[in-house]
What we know:
Shape: globular
Oligomer: single chain
CATH architecture of the domain at 12-205: 2-Layer Sandwich
Distance between the termini: 104 Å
Amino acid sequence: MNLPAKIKKLDEVVVNRIAAGEIIQRPANALKELIENSLDAKATNIQIIVKEGGLKLLQIQDNGTGIKKDDMEIVCERFTTSKLQNFEDLKAISTFGFRGEALASISHIALLTITTKTSDEKCAYRATYIDSKLKEPPKPCAGNQGTTITIENLFYNVATRRKALSNVSEEFTKITDIIIKYAIHNPKVGFILKKHGETTPQVRTTHNSTKMNNIRILYGNPVARELLEIELEDESYQFKMHALITNPNYTSKRMIFLLFINNRLVESTPIKKMLEETYTIYLPKKTHPFCYISLEINSNNVDVNVHPTKHEVRFLHEDSIIEKVKLALDEKLAGDSASRTFYLQARLPKVDVTKETLKEVLPEFEKENSEKQKKIHQRELIRTDSSDQKLDKFNFTIHTAMKIARSNSSERMESSIQTEKMLELEISNDIKNNVTTDDISIDVKKIDIANNESEHLNIITNDSKPSQSISSEAIASTSNNSVVSTNNINLNTYQEEVLLMSESDSDDSCNEEQNGINKCNDSIAKNARKRVYQYFGNKNIEDLEKELPETKPDINIKEKNNDNKMEQYNKRCTEDNVDSISQTNVTKENKSIQEFKSYSINNFRREVKLTSVLKLRKEVEDNCHQGLREILSNLIFVGCIDEVSTLIQSGVNLYICNTKKLAEELFYEIMLYDFANYGVIKFSDPISLYDLAILGLETEEAGWTEEDGPKEELATSVKELLLEKADMMKEYFSIVIDKKGNLKSLPILLDKYFPFEGGLPIYILRLSTEVDWTTEQPCFQNICRETARYFSEMNPIHNTHDWKYVTEHILYPAIKESLLPPKHFAHDSTILQITSLPDLYKVFERC
Length: 847
């Protein structure tokens, strides 16, 4: 026999949370209660700030009467209110609140903070509440007249409810709907709704406005111009009605219905059904009107306490009042339906277009006339070609010593010329005195090495410094991924070999050195390095001297030998260059078949069949703006304004571009289209994730506060999280993390481009905080976005090139060739037209 279970009294915490779940069902319910509190406090301006649909943050600020300091201790306890004392008061209640449960319920499921100031207080007071109790006594603080209520982490202790409200966009839409309805019904109160961190409000109305004006602002002029105003008063049933409804000219796919009874926003199924029946004879099927109805019924005839969220009320003579309202609406609509207004687009009259007219309008109408185009005016003449290239791109500089020579070129030029002149005189004197070839070569080498001794020492010192930064020397090859590597060149040997080949002609050597100093910069061409390494890399000065003739010929013989040597060198260079160009052409032909050019440096390519990655690629292609793509595909680089802004020309227009945004989008698309096919940048010494996280938390961008917890614990959490995901990051993103929690490598997204080392701590920190690791597609998207964000930061001190060279010759060629610009770039000033040739022609009258 089964015995009945013992009845026990529920714990107070359980009771309070159950009650809170009934009253506060979602962020919009909480906001509704707080708006009504502000209206009860006679506020004239109400500002709401929302983050993540109100789940993360919901803040409301008003300029009402405020809360007394003595009342702050019990303001969040259940059944505490200033609007109701006896049960009989419910019969004539005129305020919104009467149960005293809203703030108490919110404090049980969220962190609640109240800042308030009354007119007789000298300062404001702030208090925090948890489970209806004060966390600590109210503290004085600066503040304006009124009350500010902040709700953080709503439903943090109700996991099921929090998961059910995961769609933040839907929650924000419901919040917006609540504010719009109260703004229309309370035109004397100004409402402002903002998203956290944004300056532009989503909803904004001014105080002392009108209902008609607010409808025009919030719902648009198509609704406002079709409104009918109806007033009705009935003494027998003791009610008044004010309505704004659209006439039969207006139709909508869904019904917009605002109902206020005694200033409360409520729902009424009978009234809504009555409106649908009334409009049936005036509107086409499956179309609906806009209706705003405000009923003021004798308080003794209304029961407001019939629903936990107060969104329903009951009143006496309900059927009779609804019938009266229906007759008034029907009478107004019938009188206005005698005429209809239709808004149509004017249709142009049909015109017979002759062949001659087509020839004038369309020069390419006939193939015979397509070549006979009209003369282009100077103001529309494009004088540049987007396919042209600059010589700077092919500058064959092979050592960082050239960078030092460039900075000191003004001082070294004079000394170099003087040294060469002295050398020329000395050689000519030696020739007259029959000095041997070996003596000349030794003198030349001594002079050149003496001039460059300090420069060589600086280079060796810089190369010998240990560093954990990304360096070309630290990059080695692996079995699965290609790795960029750069061999050191012995500059002394290189200089001596060149001097041996050109010792016979001192004038030519002087000119070559002078031109080298003037033209040198930080660019290193890959093909030039190959040729130099092949010719000089495996030889030293002794081997080269053995190859030279040991006899002592005259000057003419030596010149011929040197000419032959240079011809052989040029021939080898030309052959290598032809091979490299042919290989490049073959590669481009293979890659042109793809929709997006692959920038992977790997010799092979893995086929990606993951549905999530394919969907992300599809989103990029669907969101591509064809007009901007046309502009970028024909761009001509003009110059850099700074590290962020760049000028380009496309057609007859001049544009200013946000390089960082373009680069970030480019690297994001490279991450998607080269997914799991990246090259690898290896660090010479692995970097500790823990140390990187600590450095990241110390930056201002991280926004760390003591409330977040100790930095050491957060850094350990970052390390443990990334260690857990190490296998996946290595497999798909070439981000290698060893078992000790050290970062060993990063992916190569663009050849000859290296990210800024200073941004690595924030990058590691954001990988742990901004990536949704629970779902595949958002996870891949977030990692790609964060990696693109990190790579888009321009490195001011590049290993081989300055930032201007990288921008012009590495980033923008890739942007021109492959970037699929998203549609929002057209209106967020990423690409902004600043002038055009026709506009400039009007000012200067020439081009």
